[in-house]
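Question: what's this shape?

___
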Amino acid sequence: MSFSVRDSHCDDLLIAKAKKDFFQRNNVPLLDHPACSPDLNPIENLVKNTTWNNVLTSTLETLASSIAKQLVQVINKNGATPHY
């Protein structure tokens, strides 16, 4: 079975539903799992803020100016990841 990058999000949703249905049909007990949230991790927030505060404006300008080229690459590759 093969999957394309373009369909991976939809596939993930279908697989998640299939797993949930399987577990319910087969009475598989599941543990409650807390949501993963960076808001609850003060160190992760610190690193994120420190990183953003050190990004040069020129870096952001370069990234912003590359978006059009990347969109063309995504279209030409039928939704696949562009070359960075």
